[in-house]
Amino acid sequence: MFSNKKFAGYTVVFMILGIMYMFFYSGLQNDHLNILTPYLADAYGWTNMQITNPVTVAGVVVIAFYLVIGAAFVKFGVRIIMVPSMVILGLASMGIGIAGDNYTLYAVSLFLVRLFVVPLQMGGFMLAANWFIKYRGRVLGIITAGSPLFSVVGISVLTFLATSIGITQGYLVIGVIVLVMAAMTQFLLKDTPEDAGLYPDGALEAPKSESEVAEETISVGQLLKEGRAWQLIISYGILQFIIMAMMAFMAVRYNSLTPEGHQGPPLFVQALPYLSIGAILGIPMSFVLGWIDDKLGSVKASLVLNILYLFAVIPLAIMPVGGNKALMLIWAFGVACMTGGMPTMHPCVTSYVYGRRLYQCANKWIMMIQAIPMAFSVAFMAAMNDAGLLTEAYYILIGMLVVSFVTILTMLKVPDANAADRDYALAGA
Fold first, then answer.
1. Domain ranges of the chain
2. What CA–CA distance (Å, rounded) separates 7 from 9?
3. Which of 246, 260, 397 is nearest to 331 (CA)?
4. Which span out of 69-78, 153-162, 166-175 was modeled with the highest average pLDDT?
5. How high is the mean pLDDT of the chain?
6. pLDDT surpasses 80 at 155
7. Mean predicted confidence (pLDDT) in 231-254
8. 45: left (phi > 0), else alpha (psi -120 to 50), else beta?
9. Residues 171, 174, 180, 186: is their CA dihedral positive or negative?
10. CATH H-level superfamily of 5-196+209-426
11. Which residue in 19, 57, 118, 383 is a FRET match for 12, CA 20 to 30 A apart?
12. pLDDT per residue over 278-291, tens digit each?
């Protein structure tokens, strides 16, 4: 890959931008709500429902938005859609910063932020699928480290700003950075290596596995008749649901375990140092999962990811009142594995099943269907919390992980669509 200097240049730029894509996708999708919600509640007296309703509404709209963005990527190209989307995302982030007590401006801005983080994720995934086959897992393992990196840097920075000078400046800076990312994406990247006169992985010839690919599209009717599509939808739909539920309710869960009459910072604030330590420990797992994907296949790597999810969920299920340092560290490590591993493996396993040519055609429908239950993950946690059953909610999530693990097991015989261009295939594995 790096022996081809021209290809190496594009690879380095993509990995830098890719880390930034995933950093802001993870942070602006829902992680920032852990800081924004208590800040706005304290500053303006808004209820949790008022603060988070724009995200809930956007979560429903996102169901169709996945399809719209995916179809637009296929029809028009990645950057021509991704760049304007980032401009809207940057301006909307600034809108949150300058809204103050203007609820209408705040609600519209937050709605747009939740909506337009989607092209960051889908665009980054499609660029990776277009440019890499043999090294896809490892490259995705590097860029998706941006997701847990937000746990190390982003949450701590927003917490500091919220408790010192306020978070307005933070969202203004975020907006400017996203606009710079848009410009870099436009001028420094190409949609496919072929657009730059190259081939995937920096190879000297076109992929062998694509020489027999006759179709470059797949209809929703064809997709929904395939067992492999439903295996992907169910297994990764569950993993998507859980990550949304977990990340949105971290602060609520910890603060619910703060002892009555406790003096000092709430339990979630006490857990933040462990989140940073665990994230640092867990970030390399994104690359490890990518390496497993490249060497052993996406299905086996997905099984490992499913197990790693348990490190995030189980500690919160059994966490005692007042917290437990060992469980906090295990939880933080699991969160890093989950937030970094999920975006690594979702495009990997979809590319594994459908190949580079059919990736986005299949992915737009798969992600749209997965977005339906994901849209209600936060509402599920909120309902369980309101009913005084938040602990039980985590046991339900554990049960869902058992279902996803079994579903992934049934995929072990699904062939790799690009096997002829993969290292393990060439090695006879």
1. 5-196+209-426
2. 5
3. 246
4. 69-78
5. 89
6. no
7. 92
8. left
9. negative
10. MFS general substrate transporter like domains (1.20.1250.20)
11. 118
12. 778 778 888 999 99
